[in-house]
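Project outcomes to date are best conveyed with an example. Our students and postdoctoral researchers have been running inverse folding experiments weekly, and each run begins with a structure described purely in tokens. The record below, which covers 186 residues, was selected by the lab manager from last quarter's runs and is presented without edits.
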């Protein structure tokens, strides 16, 4: 019986030692990880939202300094660049005659549309979501990050704003009823 136990122990020892892990050390298996920003990097990026076949998609563009909401919207209005178009990205922001005005205020963004929402891509749609999510993802003075950035939208012809946020999926979500105490930005 002792002999049988010794044999079983020896067999188990051999099996445990040969579990398939070699002694060769690390082996190269493709390109190094990419896509994450080095915390020590001094590069700055603007986050713009364009339309893909699956809805809104965020893209980043390198810029000289942290982009304000106004700077990010100015880039958005130029549309997707050649590489973004090659990936199938488009814009549904209509040619806006007049200027989108975005100002950081009170931990959020005051966004003034030069036209009523009904005139931006058939009542809002993805074009309006592109504008709101791009503004919400720009640098806000107190350091808030989406989805905690309120975007107060002022439409041409209306005095009271409506407040929305852009969530992580790129969806625009209402926050509250219009606040009658806020004046439209000029």
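After processing, the design step wrote out the following sequence:
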């Amino acid at each position: 019986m002792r002999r049988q136990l010794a044999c079983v122990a020896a067999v188990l020892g051999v099996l445990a030692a040969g579990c398939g892990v070699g002694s060769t050390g690390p082996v190269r298996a493709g390109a190094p990880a990419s896509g994450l920003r080095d915390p020590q990097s001094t590069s700055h990026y603007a986050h713009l939202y364009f339309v893909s076949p699956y809805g809104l998609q965020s893209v980043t563009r390198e810029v000289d300094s942290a982009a304000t909401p106004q700077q990010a919207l100015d880039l958005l209005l130029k549309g997707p660049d050649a590489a973004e178009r090659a990936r199938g990205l488009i814009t549904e922001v209509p040619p806006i005659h007049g200027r989108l005005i975005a100002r950081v205020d009170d931990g959020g963004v005051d966004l003034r549309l030069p036209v009523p929402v009904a005139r931006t891509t058939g009542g809002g749609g993805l074009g309006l979501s592109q504008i709101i999510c791009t503004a919400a993802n720009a640098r806000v003075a107190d350091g808030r990050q989406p989805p905690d950035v309120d975007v107060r939208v002022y439409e041409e012809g209306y005095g009271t704003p409506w407040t929305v946020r852009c969530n992580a999926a790129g969806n625009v979500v209402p926050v509250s009823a219009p606040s009658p105490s806020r004046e439209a930005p000029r």
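Strands lie at 44-52, 55-63, 101-105, 108-112, 150-154, 162-166, 172-176. The longest strand covers residues 44-52. The training component of this project remains on track.
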